[in-house]
Amino acid sequence: MITGTHFKLNRTTAAMLAFALTGASLTTAHGEDGKPGFFKKIFGGGSKAETQPPPPAQVKPAPKAAQKTTATETGRPPRVIITTTGRGSKRTVELNKSATSVPAKKAPPRSKPKSESIQDVTKSVAKDNEGPMKGEFKEDDDDKPSTSKSEAVSVLPSKDGWEIVKIGGRDYVTADSIRNFYNPVYGFTTFRLQGNHFWLGSSKLVLKAQVGSQEMLINNIKFILSFPVQSHNGKVLFSRLDLCKLIDPVLYPSHIQNAEHFDTVVIDAGHGGHDAGARGIYGHEKDFALKMAMSVGAACKARGFKVVYTRSTDMFLTLGGRVSIANQTPKSIFLSFHFNSGGSAASGIETWALTPQSAAATISRGGGFNVNGVTGNKQDSANIALATAVHASVISRFKFVDRGIKRAQWSVLTGCKRPGILFEGGFVTNAKECLLVASDTYRQQVSAAIGDAVVNYRKALESAMAKR
Ligand SMILES: [Zn+2]
Question: What pTM did the predictor assign?
Answer without folding.
Answer: 0.73
